[in-house]
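Notes on consecutive records. When two proteins share a document, each keeps its own sequence and its own token line. Never mix them. Below: protein one.
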Amino acid sequence: MERVWLNRAMHAGFFLLLAASASRLLVRHALDRQTLVSLADAGLLALVYAAGVLLWDKLGRTGRLWWLGVVVALWLVLVELAPSFAWCAIPLLYLCLRLLSLKMTLVAAAVLTIAVIVAQISLSDRFDPSLVLAPIAVAAMTIVIFWELRKVGVMQERERLSREIHDTLAQGLTSQRMLLQAADRVWESDPGQARAYVRTAIEAAGENLDEARRFVADLGPAPLAQRSLEEALAAMNPEFRVEGAAYPLDDRTQAVLLRVAQGALANAREHAQASRVIVTLSYLDGEVTLDVYDNGVGFDQAVSRPGRGYGLRAMRDRLGEVGGTLTVESAPGEGTAVAARIPT
């Protein structure tokens, strides 16, 4: 999972450190040949780095690796010419963590750290153990922090995909299975009805494919691409009601409400054996609520059953991301009511 804000911060940090190092060079040294060569190398490094950032998507994985190699090579030459440019090592280490395996990152970190240590020693008038220990400590902390951030990002992306699969693909596949089973039952007695079931299943498969493409690309739900939230909810369930005066909701709130409705309806179809499901969207002062009630078999909330409950947990996670809450009321033989609330 790409953390856009972190990538931008590191890119900005690289250019700021490059500019700071260049200004230090100009203030502390005469404008001689070595200074001009150093500034030329710094300018070339800035251009190559900027080109890689702007062409990131077009470069592909192999292109990015070559770009990283050129950037690091230019920086190593620059640090040899002007040791103060060693400050740029941290954003470069982040790039290595972003593009390389852990093993290769450790190798790159060793090269960068040695270059920083040599630069620190060359800038100092006497040897001090901190010149060696400090760069090693900074590199170690940077690797641990950024690697943990990467792991967290991967886990968040897995959680997002699992929620999307549960609320879209699993629901769609369940509907297709039911339609195909119905077609199989009437295949000989009523071929026309069987074909109608199959055509509906084909349409559901197309919608599922569209949803899969959108959530892999981290886009909004397909039903909201061309329709309002109310229209999308009405298309999902015949008994849909709107209460209160409607007001605009942000895209994320609409997406969460739609996914919660999909999850609740999927649970009602798969587990509740309900003959009636009512969906109500209510616009209240300060909050919007979504209620899904079914008259099915219900369940005992005090009893945990293996393999059950993921859908409710996914709903709570979604709502938690927008400051919302989920309430579930059910009892054996008395149906189930799911209520989602999001502050507006």
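Protein two starts on the next line and is unrelated to protein one.
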Amino acid sequence: MLQAIQGYHKDQENHWVAELACGHNQHVRHDPPWQNRPWVITPEGRTSMLGHKLECKKCKAGAPKDNSLTITSA
């Protein structure tokens, strides 16, 4: 199920996590060659992806909403 990115926060290991419209969180790492998301490494890149839809596996699984941390868009 596609869900829009509404904001971001960093986890305990300093990795970026997207906050999705459905209430779930999803890591958005730039870790080439496995994950190629260079937009994650700059504030401008993250801001440009607000509203972009990601596939939410937690929605498909019927998982409850995640507890949100402070949302940071930059």
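For the record: Residues 19 and 25 are 5 Å apart (CA to CA).
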